[in-house]
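Here we describe the complex-level prediction in full. Unlike the single-chain runs in Section 2.1, the two entities below were treated as one system.
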Amino acid sequence: MPRSLLNLSPRLRPVLFCAYLATQLTLMIRAHSSPDLVFGFQMFNASSELKISLFRKVRRRDRVRVVPVRDGAWETKDRNGTRRTYRWQDRIRYRNLANLDRFVHAAYGLDAQLFRLQFALDDFVSHLPGDQETEALIAEVDTLENGREAGHVRLQADRR
Amino acid sequence: MIAVRKAWRQIFGEEREAFVLGLLRLSISALLFFNGLRLVLEFSHNGYFADYFHIPLIPEQWLPDHSGYQLLLGAQALAAVCAFVGIWPRESLLAASSLGLYFLFCDRLQYHNNRYALLLLGFVLAFAPCDRSFLLVRGRRHTLPREHRIAPTFARRLFQIQVTLIYLGSTGGKLLDLDWRSGQVLFRRFAEAPAIAASQGFPLPTWVIEVLTSRWFASLAAKAAISSELFIALGIWLPRTRRLALWLGVVFHISIELGANVELFSWLMVTSYLAFVVPEVRERRFEYQAGNARAALLARIVALLDWCARFDRSSFVPGSERATFYVTNREGRRASGALGLAQLAEAIPLLFPLWLPLALYAKLTAKPRPAAASSA
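The structure predicted for the assembly as a whole is:
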């Protein structure tokens, strides 16, 4: 008979069995309180859509203004006067959030994508080396929940 | 109390034939390899995932660095190949699935239910005796003798429970969602179908478009999908309904595969049904007339496709029987013709989708049995 470390003794079998099942059930129940339903086996996506428009909160001559980010990119000069380009899609490659200014499918539902979008904004503003102007990044999001207009959401990530 | 003890003993003390588990290992390790291959391709096209936006489910410092990730990707692919060919098959299966789970925890954006389900099923299968057959590395002697194939199969039960949990999780999510229950979600999907079909050069007939874009059809389809999943989840546990539940599952997943992009999910679930096959082998019989070309062809097909070793094959001399072939099922029912083919299809994985149509055809065309010669 083939020997394997995974041939568990009769005593260990119930331990593995119960531990595995308990973990699975806990994760499945917990998934319902998670915005992206992770570990929940929610197999079929909703038919919701979202449209993300990006804006920057910038400080120029001691005045704060909100300016739109066209095609996900902007240019600015760093401290040495060198022009630098910052592009949303360079850092955010996750397909559902990389597309801007047009409606795209919200995989796993609107809550999931809005939850991930906040992470994406936080991540992006923390990776803007040399940008002297941008104080915060704002996402204005139009949402359609399974075909119905579900309203407008505003998310913001401040630079620290 | 006695019932609990009996169930306990049945789960943890049960020793059954492990032949089919080898086939299950072969399929799951192939799927694990393709899942790993996707990660390798993503790595080569997009680079190291942690160099751009990601959301780890574990602390950031537990993530591998660039070269470490490369190494682990290679290790996962190697482990999947070893599990497939039968080199430390169970340990390799455990390594491939555990590494896959680790990668999933490294980036929440990588999470998809089908990937998670595959990794869990691979993990659980590693604890089942799936190393007794289909050890390809041993060549023609790929299957161990019968006495070595009888082994504790409690992990097979765990695997079966996991399959049920996947369906229950999916059904539960749909039942709790009003838009799903009412058909609104499917209505949106179906409404897009005519435009998609037309853009691909297959304009749909008007009546099909009318049906697809009607609310009643979406509502009906939603209820059918939910009840199908529920029936599959529970029906596979009852011997009386198992066959029908498995058949419905196969058809359900074929239709999903044709209509949606679900990566390896359909293949995974259909493969996982092997865990519900009665483990014992050669309990059915296939007899065919020697010298008859059609019967010989059928015998060759049976020999080629009988991956679960369901049939004991033998030939009979011409003239000794009326039909050219006979199939005897586990209950001892000997049949030829359409019913015989149905009995073949019910036990051969590749022909299984044909089982219900053949069985129904056989039932509808069956000649009524002649009345008893005398009732006196």
